[in-house]
Give the backbone structure.
Amino acid sequence: MANKLCLGTVQLGLDYGMNNKRGKPSREESLAILDRAYEGGIEVFDTAYAYGDAEDILGEWLEGRGLNNKISVISKLKPHTTEVEEEVKKSLARLKRDYLDGYLLHTPEYIYNDAVWSALKSVKKKGLVKNIGVSIYEEKDAMYAVQERKVDYVQIPYSVFDQRLHKTDFFETARKNGVKVFARSAFLQGLVFMDEGAIPDYLSDAKEYLREFNNIIKKHGFTRAEAALLFSHKNPAIDYVVFGVDNIEQLEENLRIIRDSKNFDACAKELRDKFTDIKKSIIFPSLWKSRQKK
């Protein structure tokens, strides 16, 4: 079920992720990654103004391959900007499209701004955007989005180590209101792949969790990549898993994991039971830099 996968493009536009040793791929490498993703059955792509030149690369690929009518593209509003229609049109120009399948607020607190929300509804009514929503971090914002705003799409952080939303009615409310749930950060920016000795001091608290994670998945016969990706992919409450790669080998591995996936139920249950309450200082990458400075 590669069609439950959504390729995130942040790595194609920026150096991204704490375990990224190669840096941003070249233009040719990026186009090859996009080609292989489509060949592998991926038809939904996530991008944003904030992702460097990712929109431009994606637009070049879509136009060059003649795939504009076969691919769904979701982009996001420039952070801390309220000029919705102007920014949508800029994204459309970069992506070489007449409309976007989804457009999300990239600044979560804007979900409470009536003027911004009205502007989003306006671009949807005009046909520039088919679905509107928000990318969130905090539980309260997620609940407001699906309960009060009744967004079309919501993007959430979700991983083995970040199961906060299971403590709320989020998933049930999203399903009841017909909201599509996109889960990002399955690999927690590469943290799940790091060996204990490579973990920086400011994330030393994560070592014990990673040790327990490795012990559990080894017992069940899964690799780190398999367990991290399948934990999100096998959750029926999640409609799409947004993942990123910075080379084609990573993409091939992720496609293989989904294609060849074994029964994950027992491993998933143990991971759910074990990692229900992890500190935000570990699961919020936005807090890592502040700890790094101390």
Residues 206-220 form the longest helix (15 residues).
